[in-house]
Amino acid sequence: MKIATWNVNSIRTRLDHVIHWLTDNPVDVLCLQETKVVEEQFPRLPFSELGYYLYVSGQKSYNGVALASLQPLTDVTTGFTGVLADVEPNWDEQKRVIAGVLADICIVNLYVPNGSSIGSDKYEYKLGWFQILERYLQELMRMQPNICICGDFNIALEDRDIHEKVSVKNHIMSSDEERQALESILKLGFADVFRKFNKESGQYSWWDYRAASFRRNMGWRIDHHYLTSNLYDRAKSCVIDITPRKKEKPSDHTPVVLEV
């Protein structure tokens, strides 16, 4: 089974890129983030023509997540409240969480808040969001033994996940508090599968549109797959495909593909 994650930075703007990539790379499940469209306006037909079932949680102009699967998913939930009954509904106003089960794998697709700047209200929201995510995953792990959490985490966990010329001191997406929040998630029983196969630095999934960052490979690895132990042992590969980032008017992210 192949599971890909891709922040497309507007599905309607990047639709041709996504469909062309899926045609060349017919993964079993594609997890999309930052779709920026309500469910009713999501461009479903091109996906269905390729044989994909779609599950969408969207909002106008911002955020939004979706799952495209070659086989129907079961137990599909959206938001934290789909699993946690006691979560305040305001945590799901931003559409950032969708999950579904294929075979024996529960796939959780996340678009983690960016946080804007250290110390800002959005930064505090991001740290609070991680606390809810931890509770959400604890509950999910009681129901599902094999879990893949993937998506745009907006955090580079280690310095080797960031180009050496990029200053990480007091930088959003690499602050100690953000990394600690993500480490707390991993301590529940998840492991970074990309690092199972790729130990070296210089491999990134996001490049700023400015300063010729992609051409200079001044990027960040912030798009991840984290697996529970049994799935981690079953993983065969995890690769970053930079091909879509080379296209005209691309997303600033590129797909990351896991095979189990």
- Please, what is the average pLDDT? 97
Supply the CATH architecture.
Answer: 4-Layer Sandwich
What coarse outline follows from CA principal-axis ratios?
globular
Any idea of the CATH class?
Answer: Alpha Beta
Radius of gyration: 17 Å
- What's the story with the biggest beta sheet? 6 strands, mixed
**What's the number of domains?**
1
> N-to-C terminal Cα separation, in Å?
5 Å
Number of alpha- plus pi-helical segments:
6
Descriptive labels:
globular; Deoxyribonuclease I, Chain A; 6 helices; 260 residues; six-stranded mixed β-sheet; alpha+beta
Description:
The strands form three sheets. This protein has a six-stranded mixed β-sheet with strand order 3-4-2-1-14-13. Strands 5-6-7-8-12-9 form a six-stranded mixed β-sheet. The chain has a single domain, classed as Deoxyribonuclease I, Chain A. It has six helices and 14 strands. Helix 3 runs parallel beside helix 4. The chain has helices spanning 15-24, 45-49, 121-143, 176-186, 194-197, 229-234; strands spanning 2-7, 29-33, 53-57, 65-69, 74-78, 97-102, 105-111, 147-152, 190-192, 206-207, 219-220, 223-228, 237-240, 256-259. With 260 residues, it is α+β, with helices and mostly antiparallel strands. The termini are close together.
Topology (SSEs and partners):
Blueprint: E1 2-7, H1 15-24, E2 29-33, H2 45-49, E3 53-57, E4 65-69, E5 74-78, E6 97-102, E7 105-111, H3 121-143, E8 147-152, H4 176-186, E9 190-192, H5 194-197, E10 206-207, E11 219-220, E12 223-228, H6 229-234, E13 237-240, E14 256-259
Parallel strand pairs: 1-2, 7-8
Antiparallel strand pairs: 1-14, 2-4, 3-4, 5-6, 6-7, 8-12, 9-12, 10-11, 13-14
